[in-house]
Amino acid sequence: MLEMSPSKQAAAWLDSFSQALESGDVSAASNLFVDDCYWRDLLTFTWNITTMEGRDAIADMLKSTLATTRPAAWQLSGEATSDEGTIEAWFTFETAAATGQGIMRLRDGRCRTLFTAMTDLKGFEERKGAARPLGVRHKADPERETWSEARARETRELGVSEQPYCLVIGGGQGGIMLGARLRQLGVPTIVIEKNERPGDSWRNRYRTLVLHDPVWYDHLPYIPFPDNWPVFTPKDKMGDWLEMYTRVMELNYWGATRCLSASYDEAEKEWTVVVDRVGQRTTLKPKHLVFATGAYGPPRKIELPGADQFEGELLHSSQYASGEKFRGKKVAVIGAASSGHDVCVDLWESGADVTMIQRSPTTVVKSDTLMQVGFEIFSEDALARGITTEKADMIVASTPFALVPKGQRALYDVIRARDAAFYERLAASGFALDFGDDETGLLMKAYRTGSGYYIDVGASDLIIDGKIGIRSGVAIKSLTAKGILFEDGSEIEADAIIACTGYQSMNENVAALVSREVADKVGPCWGLGSGVKGDPGPWQGELRNMWKPTAQEALWFHGGNLALSRFYSKYVALQIKARMEGIETPVYGASGL
Asked: Residues 10, 15, 18, 20: what is their CA dihedral angle, to the nearest 10 degrees?
């Protein structure tokens, strides 16, 4: 076996695996894996987003799903590669309901990690490429309906005389991308957004906001950014792109619309959703409801003793738009993660006297460094090597969450050594640094708690140079009429206080619009159950509740940064489309994980 080429070894393993599955021999199939193995599946076997850890878990899954899945036609796609004894190969396959693709990684002839993901539903593939719609009927017809007439009719009737099959609450990047996926699959969908125009959720933020992730990581489905797009996208440019995208992808997008309430009828299997659309109350009856209200839920507003005595302005970062009105004033910013840093920079550029109040250590990574060592497969160099955004997405998704910390720990060893002098200067300023409880850095903080990190695009130098003041290591005792009193007896004056204290879980939006009971049944979103503070166990193996069936039937959560929204919108859309078409979708694994 060891003398065979990587592709022959991969083909031999895949053939053995295929034969075991075809014959229903679960024991033989599971024995093709090493002891510490992982199989991550996106819908193909489980109709879920789940990871089986260990042979026993794989065997249990196959016993439950093999008869209905009926996998077949396993084939390698491209040549396998070998790196330090690990063979990696891409493959395609089919199930009774779908086509799929995946990535295997073999060690000593057995599989260490297997990744399987649904590509299309059989008979309900997207009409694209060679299957794209013709766009015109080549026949004279006095009853002809033009494209613009058909769009006007659809816009006029959907939500009035015809009900959407799916309602997406939230028309930011996540809702827009999911709306596009559902549109391409022929699922009648309305996306509602409280702001007036698509993209306003970006336009309405503070004026200096720019994406911290590079363009290659941030493409939207179907329409990538053009080659002359800047590496880091300014907020208003992103807002304009989203507005264009919404029109070009023909979304049924209701701006200036707020969801007032929602309830699910278990007997009728449909939602009753009351919305206010530009001041007019409308009741919708979708079969599925998706919360795409951003990465998180409502603002998290901390209790500050003495707030009623403070004579200045007290804002949460969600209410902050510009530092212009604070020119020449003393401003304290509570919070030292991404928003805290960005707000501090905007205030400083506007001429305010800024002090950052750091309540816990922060992971900081220089943007240039992260670009060079952290986004290696999302880059111009990667494209030159044939690694498209779609391929890079699959590579990232193919790594089980249990194995991500090891790679991130190694990455941050490199980062800390590379930028040692920078970290020494930042620490010397009084800023408290950390790299997570287990030294795994920014990404694991994002997955686990969604807080406590910053990609440095300029604020750190201002802190190092003393242009942004820093108070760290001492707790706030109370606010006073003129500022903040700390536990050590020290005080600072402030004309305004901006609380960059983050947001609650997405299920709090469910509590507000559906019920507390349903929100609690579903449970919080995000987090892996790692056991670190803010991410309590038990271990989940996947992100809680995101992009998959929840404990509440026909209720979904979709969100995350542009990359996560781009990738997982496909799988949310496939799950909803399958249900619309009456395809059996037996979900393996407990709901609400």
From this structure: -110
Element (H, E) at 516: helix 516-522
Q: How far apart are CA 352 and CA 357, in angstroms?
A: 15
Q: Which helix (H) or strand (E) holds 479?
A: strand 476-479
Q: How many CB atoms lie within 10 A of CB 114?
A: 23
In which residue are the tokens 């800023």 written?
431
What are the residues whose beta carbons fall under 8 Å from the beta carbon of 11, sequence distance 6 or more? 76
Query: Are 311 and 482 within 8 A, CB to CB?
Result: yes
DSSP letter, residue 100: E
Say how far residue 543 (Cα) sits from the centre of its chain: 10
For 291, 337, 491, 570, the CA distances from 478, given in Å and listed in that order, are 36, 22, 10, 48
Six-digit token pair at 164? 């959407």
DSSP for 292-352, please give it.
-S-SS-SB-----TTTTT--SEEEEGGG---SGGGTTSEEEEE--SHHHHHHHHHHHHTT-
DSSP per-residue string spanning 529-578: ---STTS-SS--SS-TTBTS--SSTTEEE---SHHHHHHHHHHHHHHHHH
Question: Which residues 6+ apart lie within 8 Å of 32 measured at CB?
Answer: 13, 16, 17, 20, 110, 111
What angle do helix axes 404-418 and 441-448 make, rounded to 10 degrees?
A: 140
pLDDT tens per residue, range 339-398: 999 999 999 999 999 999 999 999 999 999 998 898 899 999 999 999 999 999 999 999
In total, the chain counts a number of residues equal to: 593
Residue 149 predicted with pLDDT over 70: yes
Spatial distance between the Cα atoms of 17 and 19, rounded to a whole number of angstroms: 5
Q: Give strand pairing partners of 53.
A: 38
Determine phi and psi for 112, rounding to 5 degrees.
Answer: -90, -50
592 pLDDT higher than 70: no
